[in-house]
Amino acid sequence: MSSQKPLNVGLVGYGFMGRTHSNAYGKVNQFFDLDRRPVLKAVCGRNESNVKAFAEQWGYQSIETDWHELLSRSDIDLVDIATPNDSHAEIAIAAAEAGKMVMCEKPLGRNSAEASGMVVAVESAGTPNMVWYNYRRVPAVMLAKQIIDEGRLGKIFHYRAKFLQDWTISKDLPQGGAGLWRLDASVSGSGVTGDLLAHCIDTAIWLNGPIQSVTGMTETFIKERRHNLSGKIERVTIDDASAFLARFNNGTLATFEATRYARGHKALYTLEINGENASIFWDLHDLHRLHYFDHRDEGRLRGWRSLHITDGDHPYMKHWWVPGLQIGYEHTFIHQVADFLEGLRTGQAAAPTFRDALATDLVTDAVLRSTKSGRWETVGLA
Ligand code: SOE
Questions:
Q1: Which atom of ligand 1 is nearest to the CA of 134?
Q2: Which pLDDT value is given to residue 44?
Q3: Which of 99, 162, 170, 312 maximizes the CB count within 10 A of its CB?
Q4: Atom of ligand 1 nearest to the CA of 198
Q5: Alpha-helix residue ranges (DSSP H) falling in 126-233
Q6: Predicted pLDDT at 179
Q7: Contacts for 49-58 with beta carbons within 8 Å, 24 or more apart?
Q8: Could you tell me which of 119, 39, 46, 118 has the C-alpha nearest to residue 77?
Q9: From the CB of 267, is ligand 1 less than 6 Å away?
Q10: How far is the CA of 249 from the centre of ligand 1 (A)?
């Protein structure tokens, strides 16, 4: 019998993200010393045979086919939302009203209006909440945060982020339905702006503070695709590519770009920050490395250092193997659960909370507004 207090999880949705979260709940207590233990109580999805198969494979004790039923259960402490974006708000608000803790996949809402309602719901209920912006918890990205917070970069002049993929280039790819709802803006809210740039914006605000104003451009390269649900050729409503310029409150100038049309790139999330004294560069395809240049190094030896973030004194790494051995994408979700559980113990909410994630939706809204107005747009306050 375990000495840790159980935290009964009810997962809604069992796609790609349902798998990453389930894996994290299953592993977290083996690697982190925590006083709570997630228990895979129930998984919920509309297709009974699929949800049963998922429950069996991942070890969930029970299933539900209607999320209202899940929320009404007294044996569920935490509702974890891993559904397409159009159901985040409804489920999260109802879960908060039912007194559950709530975790939600990114982006929080399809737009900031939806996200605001979700923030009000969790804050009025006073319930712990968090959004799965997992890339904050890549050890190298966490080290970047420490380096910046220690002031090593000095004044930050430039922030540059990109998220490049290439999986929607074929004009024969349909839109809508399982797996392809990201191509239907009525479900997703937007295209790469809300899906990929949202990651870049979340990390950027966390590392460098609030974004003040933006001006952007988007393009939809393939204008019509067959819709999986109607079977008809329909207009494509998402942005396939999105780029924007930004000014941070602290005076930093920034460029952000995301696309699903960068042939050869699968999930190339990169960021570079240039400060008065030093610069850092990070690349998701080589996620253990943090590149660091410090102008204060002795001139003869000055140059870009390629730090391998696998040592025990690097963020999170003492919980894993021995120095030099690597971890990967799935571990970012395990770190996030560990921090959430630790936040429950200390009473210090683990970030990003719903309110933090609202700040990202306010930036994506401003970017999309500016593509219509053709002007710089001020970002709303979270
Ligand atoms: C899109 O392809 C996607 O799966 C995003 O939705 C995720 O948030 C990102 O981490 C990887 O790419």
A1: 10
A2: 98
A3: 162
A4: 8
A5: 139-149, 185-188, 192, 198-208
A6: 86
A7: 50/14, 51/14, 54/14, 54/18, 58/19, 58/22, 58/23, 58/26
A8: 39
A9: yes
A10: 28
pLDDT reported for residue 3: 84
183 C-alpha to ligand 1 centroid (Å): 12
pLDDT at 15: 96
Mutate to test the pocket of ligand 1, among 21, 196, 261 (most ligand atoms within 8 A of CB): 196
Average pLDDT for runs of 10 along the chain of length 382: 89 98 98 98 98 98 98 98 98 98 98 98 98 98 98 98 98 95 98 98 98 98 98 98 98 99 98 98 98 98 98 98 97 98 98 98 98 98 94
pLDDT at 46: 97
In angstroms, rounded to a whole number, what is the distance separating the alpha carbons of residues 59 and 53? 10
195 lines ligand 1 (CB under 6 A): yes
30 CA distance to ligand 1 centroid (A)? 27
SS3 265: coil
Q: Tell how many helices (H) and how many strands (E) occur in the chain.
A: 11, 17
Pick the atom of ligand 1 nearest to 135's CA.
Answer: 10
Sequence-ordered list of residues with C-beta below 8 angstroms from that of 276, at least 6 positions apart, any chain: 153, 154, 155, 156, 157
**Cα Rg, the chain, nearest whole Å:** 21
Which ligand 1 atom is the nearest neighbour of the CA of 105? Answer: 8
Rounded Cα gap, residues 49 and 40, in angstroms = 18
Q: Is 202 in the pocket of ligand 1 (CB under 6 A)?
A: no
Q: In this predicted structure, what is the pLDDT of residue 143?
A: 98
Instruction: List all residues 6 or more positions away from 219 whose beta carbon is below 8 Å from its beta carbon.
Output: 239, 240, 241
pTM listed for this prediction: 0.98
Establish whether residue 268 lines the binding site of ligand 1, counting it when its CB lies within 6 angstroms of any ligand atom.
no
Is 356's C-beta closer than 6 angstroms to any atom of ligand 1? no
Query: Which of 195, 197, 268 for a ligand 1 pocket mutation test, highest count of atoms within 8 Å of Cβ?
Result: 195
| Distance from residue 73's CA to the centre of ligand 1 (Å) | 31
Q: Which atom of ligand 1 is nearest to the CA of 165?
A: 2
Give the whole-angstrom CA distance, residue 212 versus residue 378.
Answer: 6
Burial status of residue 292 (CB atoms within 10 A of its CB: 0-12, 13-18, 19 or more) = buried
C-alpha span between 314 and 317 (Å, rounded)? 6
